[in-house]
Amino acid sequence: MRGFIKKNDFKDILKDGISIMVGGFLTNGTPETLIDYVVESKVKNLTIICNDGGYEDKGVGKLIVNNQVRKLIASHIGTNPYVGQLMQEGKIEVELVPQGTLAERIRAFGAGLGGILTPTGLDTIVESNKQVLEVNGKKYLLEEPLGADLALLGGAVVANNGNLKYKETMRNFNPVMATAAEIVVVEPFIRVEEIDPEDVITPYPFVDYILVGDENE
Amino acid sequence: MNEKEVIASRIALELKEGDLVNLGIGIPTLVADYVSEDKHVTFQAENGIIGLGPLTDEETNIVNAGGMKATIKKGGAFIDSTLSFTFIRGGHIDVTVLGALEVDQEGSIASWIIPGKKVPGMGGAMDLVTGAKKVIITLKHTNKGQSKVLKKCTLPLTAAHQANLIVTEMAVLSVEKSGLKLLEVHPDYTVEDVIKATEAELIIDNVVPMKGVAI
What we know:
The complex is a heterodimer of chains A (about 220) and B (about 220). Chain A has helices spanning about 5-15, 30-40, 60-65, 80-90, 100-110, 175; strands at about 5, 20, 45-50, 70-75, 95, 115-120, 130-135, 140-145, 150-160, 165, 180-190, 210. Chain A has about 220 residues and is α/β, with parallel strands linked by helices. Chain A has one domain: Glutaconate Coenzyme A-transferase (3-Layer(aba) Sandwich), CATH 3.40.1080.10. In chain A, the strands form two sheets. In chain A, strands 1, 2, 3, 4, 5, 9, 10, 11 and 12 form a nine-stranded mixed beta sheet that branches. In chain A, helix 3 links the parallel strand 3 and strand 4 (about 70-75). Chain A is globular and about 50 Å long. The relative contact order of chain A is 0.19. Helices cover about 15% and strands about 30% of the residues of chain B. In chain B, the strands form three sheets. In chain B, strands 4-3-2-1-5-8-12-13-14-15 form a ten-stranded mixed beta sheet, with helices on both faces. Chain B has a three-stranded mixed beta sheet with strand order 7-6-11, with no helix packed on it. In chain B, strands 9-10 form a two-stranded antiparallel ribbon. Chain B starts with a helix and ends in a 6-residue tail after the last strand. The interface of A and B includes residues 51, 79, 104 and 122 of A.
């Protein structure tokens, strides 16, 4: 853990054209305050990696509606009609990835693997431009690892040293994204002194910064 | 019973004692209401719940895979997305029930995209139909008079050759190596009605009335 971070220092990390992973599932477990700061920063040409496109007024949907996103990598965009609209107009590139493949590609990057082999997507559009490999007589798609410049985590119970566990279903993509980005910032859902070592889900070496302070700091 | 209730109650009969089951959004979600408590079926939600309970209006951080406020059963577990899809892709889910736009006699499924019109994305559907031990597809038998049970899917696939059982408001059909077999017909329809409403070729041998339907 590098330490605690306030709004303005967080905004200094943001640059045009960076890739950002955002935790959450249909915005459950998404760090809304951090996203608001990205909106305020007005950085653009972002690549956003998230389970879904959120809603127009919630989650990564806010960045998309603010036209800050050049490319979205997600498994589902049905809850945010604006994404579909931008897609039709050619103003955003959307890479749709099966949800399990998305999770495993991120895990592969975080674990230093060269990719994963999965039967998911065989004989579908997902197979286009990908290698099909045969192992023990079964066919698999080679899916490449997926990392990012920055990961934004939410839904977390945050210990002072940066250890994390997660509240209820807000865990979802947060733990795996914590392993796969250059800089990892967590927005606490709850702050605690410490977490029992047996209960830690994301150990502190994966966490770079904990967001602290109120709106105006 | 209305059509949705017919489908949900019929599918519930397919779930066995001790099964781990993932229900998709829409009609599949209703299946849980028709499974008796003493059957000990566990529902998984791909956003990270083993032991999904009913929906709730109370304030909670627990949501189901459709983002709706939900509950967890006693003895359940919260998991992250990688473990959730280890369940799904690793063959640990006994049954998945999913809605579809089209299904065909080879068991291929189309459920996630209507090119040029609607592109919601596949979410976890491709993983579910590829990894679950048994895949039950539910859909309306026809749409504006056009059959949705086809010789060959016309829309981009979710997966090829993965459907095992198809349940519509009219019939129950199983995907066999030899083709699509008509097993059961709802009492409101005849076998002839089903043949007329189905583009796929049907194997018709010993057809019985749809099980679990209160007349």
